[in-house]
């Protein structure tokens, strides 16, 4: 995906007494996903969102909508827009590098959203100095600044010719792993079962390439839209069979006996490309079917209009 033409944020990065002008661009996008509108099933018209008073049921105009912090039993502390704005920390538009750390020092559960951090033309040399120094020392940088009205902690890592800036969740935003896993029973696997599991893992060991993984949900939606336009129904899929405790050993044996090493990367890339091609073709077909259906319905609509 090409970097967006418009920067999400512009400012400076400072390490020691060195300062360089930089810009942040979003590294991910959802614009290619299939999106839906909410429509009225009876009329086919799009539904309009409206805010109403929870007690009176009457619509509330935009100028009368304010932020409210709930205390208890529908009692709120009301905050005016200017009061909320006054809580936003002051910003000098500078990413202040606090420390350089080992790339593995931060648990990835704290990762929030990635951005491309690029240099301004006037600061390209200072930017390259930071990038190359970090690469040589094999470190990441932790920096802080105000981004999008909040003080944010950012992890900077070298990537290709530049730097990736990943915003980090605060500690209070990350749920406790101990709490999440507390219901998992204390089971120790050993013997043949563990050996077979290790064998399967070893045979499936490979490298990660994003191109190899397709968004099957998007492809399924495209197929569903195409089927609906053509008046067809998609077959229902049976849920996968869950391996029970007394069946695990046999399932492992069957898996190990039919196991093949991962295909070479070129073949995997070819497979990924063909899968992407099929997905694009499906979406294209759905678009054509939609256009055809619209064209067919136009004369009928004109007749009803007349």
UniProtKB/TrEMBL annotation:
Q: What is this protein called?
A: Non-homologous end joining protein Ku
Q: Where is the composition biased (Basic and acidic residues)?
A: 266-282
Keyword DNA-binding attributed: yes
CDD domains per record: KU_like
One MF annotation (Gene Ontology) recorded for this entry? double-stranded DNA binding
Query: What GO biological process term is on the record, naming one?
Result: DNA recombination
Q: Which family does it belong to?
A: Belongs to the prokaryotic Ku family.
Q: Does the keyword Kinase apply?
A: no
Which keywords does this Swiss-Prot/TrEMBL entry list?
DNA damage, DNA recombination, DNA repair, DNA-binding
Originating species:
Sinorhizobium saheli
